[in-house]
Structures are given as structure tokens and as C-alpha cells.
Design a protein that fits this description.
The protein has 338 residues and is mainly α. The chain is built from 15 helices and no strands. Keywords: Coiled coil.
């Protein structure tokens, strides 16, 4: 396992000595000392300086100072490695023009695979830059490392159900924008230029959820309004019902009075003209207001309703008699109109 750790982890002192006194390593080959005595001199000078440095640790040089030197040399080493790797990457095939994405083609294709999507995210042509073509540079290229990192993000998104094994460009770009996945801006521009709506299931779900919530709120308001209207209608209906019972009771009393007058022999004498006219007016008013009698119609349901009301109080009065009195009474209304 130690072989996989960096040198500064397994031997921090040796790492610093090698960084501070590189001649000790560079000129350590004794085969050249006879023909190149200056190599031996540089090696011995570096070796002596390295020994003095090692002896100073813990005595002249504190542990804190040593840690600062170690951190500084690690950062320098990493920066140097990055520069070297970047310089190498700049000359490799994936950074030449032939490796660039054909945006017209890849923006109109029906779907992207995860590997294709990674290449496109870097602006590379998936047919040129892919896992197979990058394999020889694994472990010695920052670009290849980034490619694998992007690939892992997409693979896990597929496993989690956020993406499919094959995604339309618009769907994939929507996921990338929502999750912060690195994407070449030209990919978004190319897809949008075709009129594609960049939206994934999460975006569509949020939009639909907002719409449904608004419907629920509206339904709640409507339900309250309908209940209020129903209560108001119920109250009005109860009022009308009470008024109807009052009218029915009044009509019953009037019919009873009329029956009483009719049965009294003293009242069998002909009704004086003015009294008869008043009686007809009374009959006409009750028929029109209480039984919706319409003088302009030849047939009226009021006739049967009045006869029925008389029967309810135990008296008899046929419809023809009712119709006779109503016909006689409506003449008074016609005379007034004329």
C-alpha cells in the first residue's frame, strides 16, 4: 500500500532532501566521476549539505519549520507536475482541431450516450475522444482524469434514475444545468438554436406541481364560495317555505270563512253588485298573487290548485266553478285596462 502513497507521505525527510539538494541524486553515478570530476564535486557538496540539513532537524530546525518547508516543497512539486502534464496534454491528439465537436451534427442527433455526453461537455468529438482512445494516457493526463471524473458523475446519475442510458441533448443539458455539471456553453447554444426546450423531468415536475398547487388553492377558494352560496340559498329556501305555509294557512282561513258564509241561509240572498265586485277583486288578487293565475291565458294551473286547496280543508268546489268566478273576475281587470 505504501508504494501507492506519494513520496512525501512515506519519507518526508527524503522528499525534502531530494527537492532541496537535487545534485545528490543527479550526480550520484560514480561511473562518470573519473571522466567528469566536477560531477563528483557537485555530488559531495550536495551530500554534505543534505547531511547538515538532516542533523539540524529537531535541533536548529523546529518541527513547525520543517512542516512549513515540507508544505512549500509539496506545492512546488505539484505545480511543476501540472505544468509538465499540461505541456504534454497540449501536444496530444485530444487537443488538436480534429478532436473538436461538430456542433451541427451533435446538436441534432436523437440522443447522447453517457460517454458521448462527457466528450461533448469538453467540446470534443465523441468519435475521436472516448474512453478507448484515452486509455494510453490514464494516470499521466489532467484531461483524462477530468474525463473519467465526468464519466463517473453521469454513471451515478444513471444508476440513481436521474438520467437514462440514452438521453436527448435537451434532456441531458437540462440535467447538467440543474446539477451544475460542467458543460461547454456551445452545446447549450447549439441545441437552443434548433428551437429545443431544455427541460428535464425534474423541471417539468416542478412546473406541473406549481400548476396543481394553484388548482388546489383555487378549488379551496371555490369550495368555500360554493358552501357560502349553498347556505344562503338554503336560508332563502327556508324563508320561502315559511312564507308559503303562511299563505296556505291564510287561504285555509279564507276558504273556511267563505264556506261558513255560503252555508248560512241568511247569506244566500243575492250579493249586492258592489260587494260582488269587491269579492271578485279579492278572488282575482289571491288567485294572481298566491296561485300565479294568468288572466291572459285560456288555461291555468291555478284553477286546479285553488280547487285542491279547498278540498284540503274538507270542502268541495269543482274546477268549473273556480274557472267561472275567475273568468268573471278577470273582466274587471280588462275593464280597468280598457
Amino acid at each position: 500500500m505504501d508504494a501507492q502513497l506519494p513520496h512525501w507521505e512515506t519519507d518526508p525527510i527524503g522528499f525534502i532532501v531530494d527537492r532541496l539538494f537535487p545534485d545528490q541524486r543527479i550526480f550520484a553515478n560514480e561511473e562518470y566521476w573519473e571522466t567528469h570530476p566536477e560531477h563528483k564535486q557537485r555530488f559531495e557538496a550536495a551530500n554534505a549539505a543534505a547531511q547538515r540539513f538532516i542533523e539540524s532537524i529537531g535541533q536548529i530546525l523546529s518541527i513547525e519549520q520543517f512542516d512549513l518547508i515540507l508544505e512549500s516543497e509539496i506545492n512546488r512539486f505539484l505545480e511543476e507536475r501540472i505544468e509538465i502534464v499540461n505541456a504534454l496534454d497540449a501536444k496530444r491528439f485530444f487537443n488538436n482541431r480534429l478532436a473538436e465537436t461538430n456542433w451541427d451534427y451533435w446538436s441534432k442527433i436523437s440522443y447522447w450516450t453517457p460517454e458521448e455526453a462527457v466528450a461533448i461537455s469538453f467540446g470534443k468529438d465523441p468519435n475521436v475522444v472516448n474512453l478507448q482512445s484515452l486509455q494510453p494516457y490514464a494516470g499521466n493526463s489532467l484531461f483524462v482524469g477530468s474525463f473519467h471524473s465526468q464519466m463517473q458523475l453521469i454513471s451515478r446519475a444513471v444508476e440513481a434514475g436521474q438520467l437514462l442510458a440514452k438521453n436527448t441533448p435537451a434532456f441531458f443539458l437540462a440535467w447538467a444545468l440543474r446539477t451544475g455539471f460542467h458543460m461547454d456553453p456551445r452545446a447549450i447554444e447549439a441545441v437552443e438554436a434548433r428551437g429545443e426546450q431544455i427541460a428535464d423531468w425534474k423541471t417539468e415536475f416542478d412546473t406541473l406541481a406549481a400548476f396543481l398547487n394553484s388548482l388546489v388553492e383555487q378549488h379551496g377558494r371555490t369550495e368555500v364560495e360554493l358552501r357560502s352560496q349553498a347556505e344562503q340559498a338554503q336560508n332563502e329556501l327556508e324563508t320561502l317555505r315559511e312564507a308559503a305555509f303562511a299563505i296556505l294557512e291564510e287561504n285555509t282561513e279564507l276558504h273556511a270563512k267563505l264556506a261558513e258564509l255560503s252555508s248560512d241561509p241568511a247569506n244566500q240572498k243575492p250579493t249586492p253588485p258592489r260587494e260582488r265586485e269587491s269579492m271578485l277583486k279579492l278572488i282575482l288578487a289571491m288567485a294572481m298573487k298566491k296561485y300565479q293565475f294568468d288572466p291572459t291565458k285560456l288555461r291555468n294551473s291555478a284553477t286546479a290548485n285553488i280547487a285542491g286547496s279547498v278540498a284540503q280543508i274538507g270542502l268541495k268546489l269543482d274546477e268549473d266553478t273556480v274557472r267561472k268566478f275567475l273568468s268573471e273576475a278577470k273582466v274587471l281587470l280588462q275593464d280597468k285596462t280598457d
